[in-house]
Records
---
Amino acid sequence: MKIFKRVLLTVVILAAGIYCGKLIFGRGSDIPAPMPTYFSQSTEPGDSVGIGAGTITGKIIEVKKGNSIQEAVGKASPGDLIRIYPGVYNETVYIDKDNISIQGVIENDEWPILDGQKKMNDAILYSGNGVLIENMKITNYKGNAIMGQAGNNYVIRNNWIVDTGVYGIFPQFGKNGVVERNILTGIEDAAIYIGMCDNVDVRFNEVYGNVAGIEIENSRHALVEFNYTHDNTGGILAFLTQGLPIKTCYDVIIRNNYVYNNNTKNFGAVGSTVSHIPAGTGILIMAADDITVENNIISGNDNAGITITDYAFAGVDHASDPESEPNSDRITLLDNFMSNNGNNPIADVKALMATQFSKLGPDIIAVGGGIGSCVINPSRYRTFGLNSYANCQVRDTRSIKTYLLDKPVMPRVTAQIEKGKMTYYGVCSGCHAFSTRLVGPPVNVIQALYKNNPQGIVDFIAHPIHKRDDYPEMPPQNYLTEETRKAVAEYMLSITK
Ligand code: HEC
């Protein structure tokens, strides 16, 4: 009897312990930490090194409904995990520390939601290295859902992004990152915008109902794979924009994607680069080099399946930036499945096709200058302008599994002296190029206005007022310190190209 009592007591104490444990630790204890991302899909032991982000070495900070994510970031140290529980969070989150992971917790289909209420500009802005952001639903912002500013070794995945203004996921000027398994819709410029980056994998995403689905711009070593891009104005784009500090866009593999029915009417901001994309564009390559298009299903795009162009044909005035080479060179078109494209081509394309007695638009059209390109078995497709294309010597790119590097890269140098430059590249140049119009007016126009008056810029960017009817409002930059604003203003006034 005594023994029985003792056993009972033990059981009761144990049960109470477990119950209290649950009360104290919540169910957090059975939520797995994020998986670090591995550079290699190889199963060979020793062949996979984490790219850094998502390796949790510190504490877990929990954020629940009613609390602020920004406050949690303030308390976090490198290596910490910030776990965000379901609920609606109305804020902009700035992450300027390294190795911070943000992990949304999805319970019974309930997501943690960042909602900008159509008033806020950005949901998450990071400038740290090794930042991971996963499982967040982000909606109703005016600028960006997730924007990286010169952060390396980033991981952005499993996010659900609806109607966040100009860009959805926008790592800018970062090296060694992955954007995977996100769903994005309702973005008026590029849903996934890889700008001035190196070594990036964009894979397993679904992008639909945007102006540009996936955009690789002035970036190098990008793998765009296993994505489903449908019902955008343009599905997948690789191009070089002039007037940016990075003057090349090359080595992009567009492979194993489904590029379908990208016929949505263009709703991009007037004057933006993407506002010129014709509805019905499957894949667009402009002034970019060494691009491989392989194993995609490209179907139902009403203007053209694949468009390859130089600046001149695309109507880009090239005189302003002679350093940006205007042609698409060394384009490699391997096996792709293409069907039912070109049902309703734009007038220019229609006119070209008429010279070949076709009323339909092409599966593949190549116009303008460019050298060294090739195609495998083009007679499968309806084409225009491939006469100069050779027969490809390579048959596939399977030796390339990823463009991530085998080790995390070092943070970019951000010495005080570099601050203006870094901020300019990281924040401003997405909207301001030297001599071409992007979202905002060109820098040479701003220079004329603010000659010898950096303080004028410092004040304006903290609290911009809407000046130009044909431009949107500029989002306030008052999260930058006065010192940083001064540095960037001076840098902006000093650049010459
Ligand atoms: C999301 C896009 C965007 C970003 C990012 C951006 N700008 Fe702008 N900027 C604009 C737009 C749009 C305008 C035009 C606004 C208007 O005329 O109402 C503008 C206008 C300006 C002007 C002209 C002010 C005037 O008096 O006419 C300056 C100066 C300027 N931006 C500086 C900056 C600097 C410096 C940064 C980086 C710290 C920056 N901008 C980041 C979009 C942006």
Note: Residues 2-25 form the longest helix (24 residues).
---
Amino acid sequence: MRIMPVTQNIYQPKFKSNANWVYDKYGNELYKTTTYFFRDDLDWENMIKFLCNRYKDVPKVNFINHACSNGMEPLSFLMAFIIYAPEMVEKFIPIIAKDIYQENISAAKKGFCGASVDDFLRTHNMTQGRLKEFLTLIPTSGNTKDLFYLSPNSVLKDKIIFEQGDILKDVRYTMPDNTILSCRNMWMYLKPHQKEQLAFYLGKNLGKNSTVILGFLDNYEGNAGNLLEKNGFKRCPVGTEYINIMYSKD
Ligand SMILES: C[S@@+](CC[C@H](N)C(=O)[O-])C[C@H]1O[C@@H](n2cnc3c(N)ncnc32)[C@H](O)[C@@H]1O
């Protein structure tokens, strides 16, 4: 998969890596694979503190990161747990990371994440000077617009299980209590009836004490919050209007 930064974006960052459209056989756009480390529609520290507090009396949490793209998102969740709640990491791993697009999962398993200078600096800041502990910086060959690859070190390996999967199929099965399901920045690619179905099955099949984590675009372009509320979810009291968009039923 070719990994390239793009500059256009409707809200914030100057840089995005891993941004490719995926098309169907007729050439229609299906979805874009855009992601990057520590996407800034989460206040990562407050999100981790909220989850640790919510699940403090629970021995094991089932963490599913759907629409994980090339793996930078679950790696960010994992680094954030290690940084902000090292004593509680075990409870939240392994993270089950899934994406519908097999190339994303293959890239995630290879573990070479393209990064520009901006991406490198944001990751450096977010990891509080511990970047080298988590990631190895490998210069690119010059055939890509990325300046580096950031490749996960052993401290992050074996704590994330990558699998190809379609969230619309997975949510049709009952999920355990104490599930955290992240499905961020993907609702806008679903057809209206698919969004309705996704919200309905999340409401029906997530176990007790579960949490859904959305991204900025899911509400801004995808109507996800309204649909979840229609199915019994409430916004969790964490973050400001545009960040930490999390829902639960209890
Ligand atoms: C814009 S990216 C967002 C990646 C990441 N969640 C983030 O916020 O940075 C959207 C991702 O959703 C995935 N996707 C689209 N439809 C999906 C589905 N039905 N099930 C699972 N993943 C899906 C795409 O392959 C793509 O990687």
Note: Residues 4-17 have pLDDT under 50 and may be disordered.
